[in-house]
Specification:
The protein is α/β, with parallel strands linked by helices and 491 residues long. 44% of the residues lie in helices and 15% in strands. It has 17 helices and 16 strands. The strands form three sheets. It has an eight-stranded mixed sheet, sandwiched between helices. A six-stranded parallel sheet has the order 9-12-13-14-15-16. Strands 10-11 form a two-stranded antiparallel ribbon. β6 and β7 form a beta hairpin.
Length: 491
């Protein structure tokens, strides 16, 4: 049986490619099937920049028995279109779909896209083998855990949940021979980070996060860890065979979840050092917490780690409690201070637009950023994703204003309002934080000056100057308001 996994070509909708790195999820599935004796491959149509006609042409030439598609919530319209192209080209092919988007809304996905036959829900490395064997034997899909499909009456059937994979070492390393385009085609980590040279590879050392943030659609999953040897084996492959110079760990939280995790991190770092892999640059995500210790962070630095990305979200304790972050402001200061002492660089993630968030809470976020002075700051718009507690709350209150998933971008669009902020206010505070902390005053000064050097710039000059002055005025106003409140408090 021949199976092809496709990363849908979203660029046909967006006008630009989002493929910075290979799609690890479907690479794991293809590798497992390949090792089981099936003919499997991955086509990253997004990275290749294929048109719909090109996709149809290639699918017809490949003539697979099964096509597997993947998608996040943001690109669900692309998933539907890709499934329709596949169905029109090969009417008899079985079309599967998985990923965060379909997994979070299986009933909606199957009802809105008749071209899709079966959905894989959650971790599907075991599911895919059972499913392909079942399709070969024309067996009963209802006996396979972790699926959603239509019965003969057209009703959506969901089977029992697939248990999480406990032994991550049992999974094979992704086989890069199975993907088109080759690894050398990919850029790697998005952005410029000191010590993170290209080419860059992505990998996962653990799965799961036990925390309960209301904006996360993957919260409350038991953490599971690969062995240090398995991780180092994969790094060694990347270094020797793919000639990478840096690695980005895609773990939800590589460090900071528990003291037990610290011991695992030290084992991984020791293995990296012992095998001479510490000449690469490493980047990971971490959780601000009192579980962090200087010994572990210093060992990470010795092993080649350069950056930790911290999900802080807000500088207001009220908001941190409201979003169930299980985090104290003191923990944030402690974590950044410890990372700096260990010689690690830090990126701070912040968000704007949470329920009950006010102007005063935004000011506290600004104060936290100024107090910590992270090496990089990244501001996002709070976005209610289906499957999250935040989505359910806002949906029940009628506060989700946009259901076009293409607009569910944490950097471009506001799709909701709250009891305390309108959509425009959320967008305005987001822009103000971007202006002040991501770009900085000097950036806007240069931006305005640059407008004087081109004809198009002259046309936009007044608009750009107005934006800069507007933000400066609002920051001054916010500071005066804060000073006034402090004086009234002291009086």
């Amino acid at each position: 049986m021949k199976i092809i996994f496709i990363n849908p070509p979203a660029w046909n909708f967006t006008g630009q490619t989002n493929a910075n790195c290979p799609v690890l999820g479907v690479m794991y599935l293809a590798t497992i099937l390949d090792k089981a004796g099936y003919q499997a491959k991955v086509i990253d149509a997004e990275a290749l920049g294929w048109s719909w006609d090109k996709l149809a042409q290639e699918i017809k030439q490949e003539n697979p028995d099964v096509i597997g598609l993947t998608s996040t919530t943001l690109f669900m319209p692309v998933l539907y279109k890709t499934a329709d192209v596949c169905r029109e080209t090969l009417p008899q092919v079985k079309i599967l779909a998985g990923g965060f988007g379909p997994s979070l809304e299986p009933e909606k996905t199957l009802k809105e896209c008749p071209s899709i036959d079966i959905l894989g829900l959650g971790e599907s490395e075991i599911t895919i083998i059972e499913l392909i064997r079942c399709l070969e034997a024309n067996g009963d899909l209802s006996k396979i855990n972790g699926l959603a499909f239509r019965n003969q009456s057209g009703d959506v059937i969901k089977t029992a949940p697939r248990p999480l994979i406990e032994d991550l070492d049992s999974l094979p390393l992704p086989d890069y021979r199975l993907i088109n385009p080759p690894f050398s085609f990919y850029h790697g980590v998005f952005g410029v980070y000191k010590g993170i040279a290209l080419p860059n590879a992505v990998m996962v050392g653990s799965r799961g996060c036990p925390h309960r943030c209301i904006f996360c659609c993957n919260a409350g999953k038991k953490p599971r860890f690969r062995s240090a040897k398995s991780i180092a084996d994969e790094i060694e492959f990347y270094k020797k065979e793919l000639k990478v110079k840096s690695i980005q760990f895609y773990d939800d939280e590589f460090v900071g979840m528990s003291s037990g995790q610290n011991a695992w991190v030290r084992e991984v770092c020791q293995e990296i050092i012992d095998r001479g892999l510490d000449d690469l640059g490493y980047l990971c995500q971490g959780r601000c917490s009192r579980f962090l210790d200087l010994e572990t962070l210093k060992m990470m630095r010795r092993a080649g780690f350069r950056w930790i990305w911290w999900g802080v979200e807000s500088g207001s304790q009220k908001i941190l409690d409201r979003i169930k972050k299980d985090l104290k402001i003191d923990d944030i200061y402690y974590s950044f201070k410890l990372a700096k002492k260990a010689g690690l660089l830090s990126l701070m993630f912040m968000m704007v637009g949470f329920p009950d968030e006010t102007k005063e809470d935004v000011k506290k976020s600004a104060d936290l950023i100024k107090g910590i002075k992270p090496d990089k700051i990244r501001i996002h718009i709070t976005t209610p994703l289906p499957g999250s507690e935040l989505w359910e709350e806002l949906y029940q209150k009628g506060q989700i204003d946009e259901f076009d998933y293409f607009k569910y971008s944490t950097r471009l669009s506001v799709v909701h309002h709250t009891d305390t902020m309108t959509r425009e206010e959320i967008k305005e505070y987001y822009r103000m934080l971007i202006f002040r902390f991501e770009n900085g005053y000097w950036y806007f000064f240069k931006f305005v000056l640059k407008s004087l050097t081109t004809i198009e710039g002259w046309k936009q000059f007044s608009k750009r100057l107005k934006i800069a002055v507007n933000h400066l005025f609002k920051w001054r106003k916010m500071k005066k308001s804060e000073a006034h409140e402090k004086n009234n408090h002291h009086n």
